[in-house]
Design goal:
Length: about 400
């Protein structure tokens, strides 16, 4: 019999119940503020952020500049060999896209099939070398037959493991634990702000169960993103809790370790794990989420974003900004700023509408639009409307301290 409470009662959180309300309100305000013209690009950017921080937690040292540079070259058809670390990040990006595109109901998001699917989508397409399990010192692990122990994408582990000082359930117990998890965290039966409390507990409980031979950390953060979207956060994807986890990994692991603790006496809950520890992690989770939604709300506040846009294009008109390789970017006429701000305000527009709004001749605007498209600032394909994009060369200036 599984003697673990799924999540704590709201009344045990005290003043954090007010923070939960504040979190929903902040998310709703952010969701309402962001114009449709930049929403898609912002969600694309947040996938890069999630990818960087989730893999950084797992020890991948790849800098976002290298990730952006690789994607920029791939988009332009300049395919090249990439390092194992970059390949891992690119696989994680694909897994995020698949998770976002999946039709996920309130019930589906906690189902075993969905969780196994997240694991499989990350490992699909990666070379077999990525499936070899390694110990904490980087050495390959051998199974009982003296062969490499392999990760099986989308399948639960069949070996016992130890994570730090924590001994997760035995492999033969996983089906029972995962069955308990999918029923306990069914969002159809959880309502209101309790869904965030459940999201926090789900994050820890899945980490504690450790169902896969490897890749558990990435899967539980992917799952948390999906679970938060299903929990009523319309702006999720414009902000991300994973960034908060990755900004201070010591605090993240400390909070998880607190929830790993066994019950401390008869008054510390009903299950084998400490209620006090889970309350600690739940409060950490809420604080981290609130910190991140406030950070992105500040970052994406229209007036301040407009100031940074002006600064970027004014510097480009003077030839004073480098690209991610350190080389100076080419001059870009100041009219490009007017085009960018117009698209930010109005959304997708035809070339004729842009010409009319800016009162510029077609001959003047054509080379500017072409250069902006070449640099990824807009999409302006023949016979199609012009659409705003986030150029990889502009991200660090438009979104400072993102990394």
């Amino acid at each position: 019999m599984i003697t673990i409470i799924p999540f704590v009662s709201a009344h045990k959180l005290g003043e954090y119940q007010d923070k939960l309300v504040e979190l929903y309100m902040a998310d709703a305000a952010l969701n309402q503020t962001i114009p449709d013209s930049i929403r898609g690009s912002t969600e694309w950017l947040l996938r890069q952020v999630n990818c960087f921080y989730s893999n950084r937690i797992e020890g991948n040292p790849t800098h976002p500049k290298d990730l952006l540079k690789t994607q920029d070259r791939n988009d332009k058809g300049n395919k090249e060999e990439v390092t194992d670390d970059l390949m891992e990040l690119l696989a994680h990006l694909e897994a995020q896209i698949k998770a976002k595109e999946a039709t996920t109901t309130l019930k589906d998001v906690s189902q075993q099939d969905f969780i196994r699917g997240l694991h499989k989508s990350f490992y699909d397409g990666l070379p077999e070398s990525f499936l070899i399990v390694k110990d904490k010192d980087g050495r390959e692990v051998l199974d009982d037959e003296n062969k490499y122990l392999l990760v099986r994408p989308g399948e639960y582990r069949d070996h016992s493991v130890q994570v730090g000082t924590h001994l997760p359930p035995k492999s033969e117990e996983l089906i029972a634990y995962m069955g308990w998890l999918e029923k306990s965290f069914n969002l159809e039966k959880i309502h209101g702000t309790n869904r965030v409390i459940a999201a926090a507990a789900l994050h820890h409980r899945l980490a504690w169960i450790h169902p896969f031979q490897d890749g558990n950390g990435r899967v539980l953060r992917l799952l948390t993103d999906c679970y938060m979207r299903c929990s009523g956060f319309g702006g999720y994807g414009l902000w991300s809790i994973t960034r908060g986890f990755g900004r201070d990994t010591t605090a993240y692991y400390t909070a998880l370790a607190e929830a790993d603790k066994p019950r401390q006496g008869q008054t510390d809950g009903r299950g084998v794990l400490s209620d006090t520890g889970l309350i600690y992690f739940t409060k950490y989770f809420i604080d981290t989420a609130l910190d991140q939604v406030k950070y992105f709300s500040e970052l994406l506040e229209p007036r301040k974003l407009g100031i940074r846009i002006d600064y970027y294009f004014e510097m480009r008109a003077k030839g004073g900004l480098p690209n991610f390789s350190g080389e100076n970017l080419p001059l870009l006429k100041i009219t490009s700023r007017d085009v960018y701000r117009l698209l930010l305000e109005k959304g997708v527009m035809s070339r004729s509408a842009i010409i009319q709004h800016l009162d510029k001749g077609e001959q003047t605007l054509r080379p500017i639009l072409k250069q902006m498209e070449n640099e990824g600032l807009i999409s302006a394909k023949p016979k199609r409307n012009v659409e705003l994009k986030l150029s990889t060369t502009a991200i660090e200036f438009l979104f400072p301290q993102l990394w």
